Amino acid sequence: MKILILNKNKFNAVMISNHVTCDNIGSLNKLYVISINDTHGEMSKSYFEECSASNVLKLYFDDTDGEEDGFTAFSKEQGEQVIKFLEQIDVNDDNQLILHCTAGQNRSGSVGKFAADYLGYDYKKLLRDNPIIKGNSVVSRTLNNLYFH
Q1: In Å, what is the CA distance from 105 to each residue of 3, 24, 86, 101?
Q2: Which parts of the chain register pLDDT below 70?
Q3: Which of 71, 74, 89, 92 is the 20 to 30 Å CA partner of 1?
Q4: Which phi and psi (to 5°) does residue 107 adopt?
Q5: How far is CA 83 from CA 15, 41, 99, 138, in A?
Q6: Which fold has domain 2-144?
Q7: What is the pLDDT of residue 66?
Q8: Residue 81 CB coordination number (10 Å)
């Protein structure tokens, strides 16, 4: 198992260079994607916007604590979606979970850290492979409250 956290531009480039599209992502049964997108602006459209494959989870929320006008924070319902999505992942050596948000640091960092805990992934390896991740307190708190309480 490998968990990779990317910024949106790098994620799109990786998908394009590996010829991963809406047409074939569903047949790539060793690849799982969590696509975190802004709720408005140029970063609001997912690379997999038109896809409904079970190995792709598209989320739309902003990197906010929920107190800023015009921005949408991570919700309990989205947390439940993340947990349900992670339940389908078999943690074997061949599988890969790729997450992204705009910068590849806060939102995807928190979801990636939670995924590592949930899947029993080596946390030191996660940090070594993804050295720029930070976190979003709302995302972390919501996921931890749903799973650990």
Answers
A1: 14, 27, 20, 7
A2: none
A3: 74
A4: -65, -50
A5: 24, 27, 14, 16
A6: Protein-Tyrosine Phosphatase; Chain A (3.90.190)
A7: 75
A8: 15
Look up residue 18 and give its two tokens: 């590996």
Task: Please report, rounded to a whole number, the percentage of residues in the chain having pLDDT higher than 70.
Answer: 100
pTM of the model: 0.95
Q: What is residue 148's predicted lDDT score, i.e. its pLDDT?
A: 83
pLDDT at residue 83 in the model: 98
Question: Taking the domains of the chain in order of start, what are their residue ranges?
Answer: 2-144
CA distance 37 to 88: 22
Q: Rounded to an integer, what distance in angstroms lies between the CA atom of residue 49 and that of residue 35?
A: 9
**Pairing relation of β-strands 31-37 and 56-60?**
parallel
Location of structure tokens 């995807």: 108
Q: Which residue has the tokens 């590849």?
A: 104
**Residue 70: count of CB within 10 angstroms of its CB:** 8
Rounded to whole angstroms, how far apart are CA atoms 62 and 75? 11
pLDDT, residue 91, reads: 84
